[in-house]
Amino acid sequence: MAKASREPKISAEEATARLRHAGLRPTRQRVELAGLLFQDGDRHVTAESLHDEVSGAGVKVSLATVYNTLHQFTEAGLLRQVIVDAARSYFDTNTGDHQHFFLEKEGLLIDIPGETIAVAGVPAPPPGLSVDRVDVVVRVRRN
Amino acid sequence: MAKASREPKISAEEATARLRHAGLRPTRQRVELAGLLFQDGDRHVTAESLHDEVSGAGVKVSLATVYNTLHQFTEAGLLRQVIVDAARSYFDTNTGDHQHFFLEKEGLLIDIPGETIAVAGVPAPPPGLSVDRVDVVVRVRRN
DNA sequence: ATAGCTGCAAATGCTTTGCAAGGCC
DNA sequence: GGCCTTGCAAAGCATTTGCAGCTAT
Lengths: 143, 143
Hints:
Two copies of one chain form a homodimer. Chain A has about 140 residues and is α+β, with helices and mostly antiparallel strands. The first copy, chain A, is about 30% helix and about 25% strand. Chain A has helices spanning about 10-20, 30-35, 45-55, 65-75, and strands spanning about 45, 80, 90, 100-105, 110-115, 120, 130-140. In chain A, the strands form two sheets. A three-stranded antiparallel beta sheet of chain A has the order 1-3-2. In chain A, helix 1 packs across helix 2 (about 30-35) and helix 3 (about 45-55) packs across helix 4. The longest helix of chain A is centred in the middle third of the chain and has 13 residues, at about 65-75. Chain A starts with 11 loop residues before the first helix and ends with a strand. The mean pLDDT of chain A is about 90. Chains A and B meet through strand 6 and strand 7 of A and strand 6 and strand 7 of B. Chain A binds a DNA duplex (25 and 25 nucleotides) through helix 2 and helix 4.
């Protein structure tokens, strides 16, 4: 059930550089997690899935640290949080403008490039409010 | 802090009829909750807010029953669940096609009529999947 | 009568936090 | 050395569930 066809994780040096850039101290755990997360531009993880993955790779990182790290990465702009499921939080390594397909049954997220979808007719928000972001979630199910 | 300008709740008879229609037994608690929920077509509640409201009205209903009732109403098609916040579930009395503004800071949901927003360019979902629904959440903040 | 509901309290599942020990600069 | 980070375990929340007692039909 492990992901067989993923590019090898990025080097510790790359991960370290990336962390320093974001103003985060490159600890062993962060470097390890960054290595797994940023190997390509399209990953969706939950704290648990990432913890399983890093644990499966033989690295010891506590679940609490995974949670903390995901939030730190998010604050640093390295990740984006995606809210589609009441039960758990997803984190997306793609921080750019894009939307998602979501397969609720399996907890699967699939990116939709930002230019693909056009949302027209968004009304002006009520007085005193301004638009922060427009999220589109295309909920899908298996046929 | 109570909502001062809300229409009086619908009569117990109306609520009862509505419940029977949905195939739900009109118990005291359900009639009471339905009366509060369906007084107009645009309410967004959480289990806790509804529990506070019904309790504040001097009616005794346990929080567990509020949760159960919200889910039963949702299954019966009387409510729709809205997922915009990782921390809590919202239920919307408007079950028709429409979208939402969401003020995260205050947990406030505001309806956007279905015809207002047009989402174009939704790509065909990956093979084996079909679109269930397209949710648009316009996240706003106070100026 | 009886199948279905309710309420309480306990349990659950995800997430956060306090704090001592350890690691990076 | 000093400050930041980690890890564990405990705490926290929203939500769900088991089950005895109650209620609508």
